[in-house]
Amino acid sequence: MKIGKLSELTGLSIDTLRYYEKIGLIDPPFRKGGQRLYDPDAVRWIDFLKALKATGMSLDDMKRYALMRAKGNATSANRRVMLENQHALVLERIEELTACAALLEYKIANYHEIEARHELDDKKRYLK
């Protein structure tokens, strides 16, 4: 598929796709008449890269993972360890964000109470 279609299917800009190719995150496409033609499997790989990025994995680590992937099954244990480590970081972040969400919920509830009391005070003043 052409780069425009890959961009459309993955949500990544053409410039980002070219950059990912340049730094080794995406396998170099087949070229025909100066145009890049990507394998349909590129969409799944890019979706995986986007998931890694969403977990907070650095580009350097993503590149390391991609280089190991290119070497095949001999690197599967190392790739698994990378993913296990990233998974642990994600779980820590979820815990941290859950605590932050609880604090925000508490503060929001406090503001609702303050606003409700303020409205009640306003009504009392109006009725006097």
Mean pLDDT: 93
The run of helices and strands is: HHEEHHH
Strand count, sense and barrel status of the largest sheet are: 2 strands, antiparallel
Q: What integer value in Å does the Rg equal? A: 25 Å
The CATH architecture of the domain at 3-70 comes to Orthogonal Bundle
Helical segment tally? Answer: 5
Number of strands: 2
Uncertain residue segments: none
Broad CATH class of the domain at 3-70: Mainly Alpha
Any idea what the shape is? elongated
CATH topology of the domain at 3-70: Multidrug-efflux Transporter Regulator, Chain: A, Domain 2
Please list the strands of the largest sheet in the order they lie side by side: 1-2
How is this structure best described in words?
The chain has five helices and two strands. The chain has about 130 residues and is mainly alpha-helical. It has a domain at about 5-70: Orthogonal Bundle (Multidrug-efflux Transporter Regulator, Chain: A, Domain 2), CATH 1.10.1660.10. The protein has a two-stranded antiparallel ribbon. Strand 1 and strand 2 (about 35) form a beta hairpin. Helix 4 packs antiparallel against helix 5. The radius of gyration is 25 Å and the shape is elongated. It starts with a helix and ends with a helix. The mean pLDDT is about 95.
